[in-house]
Please model this.
Amino acid sequence: MTELEKYIQTYFGVNNEDLIKISSFFKPVTFKKGDYFLKTGRHSDRLGFVQTGIVREFVYIKDKEVTKWISTKGYFVVDLSSFVFQQSARWNIQALTDCELYVIDSKDYKKIGQVIPRWAELEKLFIAKCFTVLEDRVLQHLSMTAEERYNQLFNFNKELFNQVPLQYLASMLGMSPETLSRLRKKAAG
Amino acid sequence: MTELEKYIQTYFGVNNEDLIKISSFFKPVTFKKGDYFLKTGRHSDRLGFVQTGIVREFVYIKDKEVTKWISTKGYFVVDLSSFVFQQSARWNIQALTDCELYVIDSKDYKKIGQVIPRWAELEKLFIAKCFTVLEDRVLQHLSMTAEERYNQLFNFNKELFNQVPLQYLASMLGMSPETLSRLRKKAAG
DNA sequence: AGCATTTCTTGATTTTTGTCAAGAGCAAGC
DNA sequence: GCTTGCTCTTGACAAAAATCAAGAAATGCT
Model:
């Protein structure tokens, strides 16, 4: 079973037969460090799954880059408003390292629904799960200090701090790079 | 057409016949100021639609109330993780004023899917829309100061500031009540 | 109306975080 | 191996926001 199949099974809980049908629509695509999976303003008609490598989703706000999320193995990358609602893309999605993604375009994606009758239901459940994760993220900003947010992310995923330029993590945590640097020093004791 | 029907049509874009089928599952329930629609830890098997009044969703974190959202006419109120995934509720949902809600329990909710074949698809679209709204909210915390967040909410919905205790709005915006008070004074010039 | 309670404002102060600037450390490419 | 960038750290300072405390204003209740 490939990584992709493993994750689809975990996320969507389908049987082996459906699993193979679904995953067969995804095609492997390699990205070099710096390549864009998606650029703001363009129309995105594809969904990616990170097999290896690190991918950053960010947007320019007042001439500054704001990193919304950093995806590693096992994450889907997509601009949902663009993929689902055919709007122009809000996020830039860029490979931070060389990457292997499994990619599906919206034309093929629609075919999944024809093959798997319960697909819309499974999609709903998956997006609902994503929603609750984002709810938590909002709550973190309402209730935690920069230091607490740093510690939480660090405890959740230490490796990230060796693999990703810290300025991006700082942005994703909603603090300046200097603050992250100081909190890091402080936590290291 | 009732408010509920109007909003269902706007959100889900169904025809008149389906609209009536869907809305007929919702039952009007009145809540007195202070009543709880849902309490943390309980199991929630109902979804509400705010017809009149104001409803607050909040949670205790380290003995402090954190207000996640304040809903007025036209909003759905629900603990999604509880309603969809049968987990115990994460949020308290309380009437800030006397309220009329249209309420549906999960048993009846499931019947909608039997009556409207496209329902899972429509649900998916609705939750996806909610997801993109939350994405924006996260971005606001990554890129805006307390003052900018205050101004944005005030410009978006001025009435809220006359109807809701400001301490709740402050919490929802991720700042102390004192800071909100000062920003408010400053913006009033 | 009058009292009690809650909510809001204000000032003083502290803490947290951001900004600016300089330099150190690293890595990529020639 | 040596530039050339890029990234990270550090210090000094400024700005933003939190906290604490006191009182004013509004609200609810009887």
The interface with chain B takes residues 59, 61-62, 64, 66-68, 80-81, 84-85, 90, 118, 120-121, 123-125, 127-132, 134-135, 137-139, 141-143, 171-172, 174 of chain A (CB under 8 Å).
